[in-house]
Every structure is written in structure tokens, then in C-alpha cells.
Amino acid sequence: MKPRPIFLVVLVLVLTVLAGLFIYPETFDKYYKFANWKLGLDLVGGSHLVYEVDLSSVASSDRDSVVNGLRDVIERRVNLFGVSEPQVYLSKAGNAHRLVVELAGIKDVKAAIEQIGATPFLYFAIPQQGLTGETEAGEVRQLTTYRQTELTGRYISSAKLEFDPTTGAPQISLVFNNEGADIFETLTEQQVGKPLAIFLDNQLIQEPIVQEKISGGRAQITGRFTVKEAKQLVERFNAGALPAPIKLINQQTIGASLGGDSLQKTVWAGIIGTLIVMAFMTLYYRGLGLVAALALLIYTLLTLAIFKLFGVTMTLAGIAGFILSIGMAVDANILAFERRKEELRKGLSKATAMEEGFRRAWPSIRDSNVTTIITALVLYYVTTGFVRGFALTLLIGVLMSMFSAITVSRALLRTFLRNNA
């Protein structure tokens, strides 16, 4: 057997002890807020907000892309403010399109609305003169109307706060994406010598006269902003301007679907299941199984510490993903131990058979875990909400299980088992 990796074993054991202290609720939580567990909507409840989407000015062919873009923008804004495991999805009632936002742990509805913020809806419009009738004096009264163009905030790629070099007044510099830059160039070319209005949340901000065709996709807004208001607008534009206006039509506080009692039962079920697996490994493989059980305990504590340290939001689906990875961690040890039996039948010593068992089992362990990792990555990037939480905990768990089953188990065996074991 190869030299005993005493240093690695000691390091892993020290990290495991620290991980156990870290995940215990009363050890660090009194002093460090970052040590708190993050729980999802199904475990702690939260706020439920319903917005109605105004698509009256959006062409029928573009409505699907607009509402999907709207969902993405709101999800980015919610994530920007650190809300745990947000649920942002679309629904339809008749011809009305609605956006539903569920925020875990935020039971104050007003606070939830503030978390989302009033994301600005910006668009450019062309002034038009319309006749509305005559006054009592017989004069014709004219009313300026505005025709909204296709250039809206959905084409903004970035925004920046600047100050007028003469007056010192705050102004917002906008940069459009490639498609928006082309639209803006065409629009300004058509309006040379004519006014072009800029509306923000259906309020006229400014109506400058276009002096020349503007290329490069840059524009400035110089409304009557305070510095605070301008900074807030810049932040919200960078988080994503709404491709269509929304209106809050329903708000309520929702309770946890599981609650503390069910959460406690779920955790105990996971603990009991893990202990049963450890007992089986010990009874069936004896000394080797005892080492595998110790490696599984190390894996469990280190993985939970990673979840807590990096603020992974724990939902029921996330817990399921973690428990599933525990089975995969044991599966790798079983493959190595069964390979060892085959090598013993060839007449190899126990120490050499163990090394060969891990070496020959590695391709199977690698391939099975890689396929699971690929599946978890696809689920994480394609889905949202609870399924994404399941994918994240499964991904972290599988990566840690590979480390536990190969590195930790082998190091423990090399350290504690003699060559004639």
C-alpha cells in the first residue's frame, strides 16, 4: 500500500469538526449573520404579488417575447436584492397576461414591493398635432398627441449617471444594444429638425429637437431629477428596464406549505436514512464499511457547511437533491469494494487489491457522476424556482461525493488499515 497520507487525513478531520460547529445553529449564528440558513418559500412562507402586464402597445407577434423578457427582468431585479429562492412566473386569465412574484421569508407585503422596486418603463414617441374642436371664441384648439415608437427600454444595454458640465444637473446616459442602436439611428434620421419625445413611466420627461442623425446607440435623459432619483433610475435601468408596463393588482402574505414541524420531520428522515446506510455498510463490509461510513459522515458535514457558507437556499426540493447525492456517495465506495473482491480472487494482497479496486472502479464512478453532473447543469440553467434549487444541491452534492468516495475513503484506508488487513 502507498505511504499513509497522515497530513491529508488530519486536515480533513479538522475541517469536518469545524464544519460540524459551523452548521450547528447556535455556534456562529449569534455573532455572524452570514452563518444563518436560507430557507425557501415552501418552508418559511413569504409574499405573493400579482402584476398585470399592459401589452396594448405591443404587436401580437412580439407579445410572447415581451412577457418572457419581462419575467427575466423582474427575476434579475429580485435576485439583485438578495431574495431567497424567488418564484417568478407568468399566467394568463382570458386575454390578460399576468406576472406572479413569490418572495420567500418576506411576510411584509410593503417590504416585498419595495424589494422589487418600480422598474422604469421608458419609450420614445413622435409628437403629433390633432384637431379637437373650436373654442367659444371660434378659435381652433390643437392638442399635442404622441405616437409611441418601437424604441423602448427593452433595448437598453447599460445606463450611467453623469452631470451637466455647465449646470451640474444630473443626467442619465443610455447605451442601446445593436438592435436598439439601429432603431434609434433610423428614428433620429427621420426626425431631423423635429422634436422627439422621451417618456418615463408614461410621464413626458423631455422633448428635444433632433439636430442630426445619431449613430452609435447613445442617448441622454436630462429631466428634473435629484441626484438620488437619477442614481435609482440608473440602478433600475442596469437591472433591466421593463419591455412593457406592469400594474400591481393583488398582494397577499402566504404561509409555509410545510412549516417547522414538517421541516423537522424531513430533516429527521434524512438523518435516519443516512444512519441506516452507514449501518448497512458497516455490517456488510465490516472494517471497510466502517471507513466508508466515516467518509459518508465527513461528506455530509462538509457539504452542509458549503450550503450554509455560500448561502444556498434550502427548499424541500433542495433537501431531496442533497439526500439523493448521499446515495451516490455510498455507491462509489461499493463499486470500489466489489472491485477489490475481484482482485483478491486473482491472488493479490489485500493492500494491493484495495488500490487496484479503486483504480479499476474509477472509470465507472467517473462516468456515472459526470452524467449526473450534466443533468444537474441542464436543470439549473434551463429551469427556475424549486427545480433549480434541486439541481444546485444535487450538483454540489455529487461533486463533494466524488471527493469523499475517492480521496477521503482512500486516504482513511491507507492510514488506518495495515497491509494485512
What features would you highlight for this structure?
421 residues, alpha+beta, Multidrug efflux transporter AcrB transmembrane fold, Gyrase A, domain 2, 3 domains, four-stranded antiparallel β-sheet, 13 strands, 21% strand
Description:
- The protein has 421 residues and is α+β, with helices and mostly antiparallel strands.
- It folds into three domains: 196 residues, Multidrug efflux transporter AcrB transmembrane fold (Up-down Bundle), CATH 1.20.1640; 74 residues; 122 residues, Gyrase A, domain 2 (2-Layer Sandwich), CATH 3.30.1360.200.
- It is built from twelve helices and 13 strands.
- A four-stranded antiparallel beta sheet has the order 3-4-2-12. Strands 6-5-9-10 form a four-stranded antiparallel beta sheet, with helices on one face. Strands 7-8-11 form a three-stranded antiparallel beta sheet.
- Strand 9 and strand 10 form a beta hairpin.
- The longest helix is centred in the C-terminal third of the chain and has 33 residues.
